[in-house]
Specification:
Blueprint: H1 2-10, H2 12-21, H3 27-42, H4 47-64, H5 70-84, H6 92-103
Helix pairs in contact: 2-4, 3-5, 4-5
Length: 104
């Protein structure tokens, strides 16, 4: 959580997400870029703090363009979950299973 707090204070994720989503973009293109970025970031950050940081960015971006934020928030969550499965540190479940395997 400390690393995520530093990322939040530096606003790096905010700038990267807004650039990734784009100014004039179709829903499909923005969804693909959003899910790709979330998938990759979620492999090195915990899922919950990443989604918490991305939710207001995505919500505001969608509202400014007259799109329903819910169309982006559910895929954001799913992309975070899937990305978290890539590495041991991605999700707490992976850490628990890794610990159990090392204990045997």
């Amino acid at each position: 959580f400390i690393v995520v707090q530093a990322v939040d204070k530096s606003r790096i994720l905010d700038r990267a997400a807004r650039k990734m989503l784009g100014q004039k973009s179709s829903e499909r293109g923005a969804m693909t870029r959003l899910c790709s970025m979330t998938f990759i970031l979620s492999s090195v950050f915990n899922n919950t703090p990443l989604v918490v940081l991305m939710m207001p960015i995505v919500r505001d971006w969608a509202r400014q363009r007259g799109m329903a934020p819910s169309k982006f928030l559910i895929p954001l969550s799913y992309a975070s979950i899937m990305g978290g499965l890539m590495t041991t540190i991605g999700t707490s479940t992976n850490l628990v299973v890794n610990g159990l395997l090392e204990a045997q």
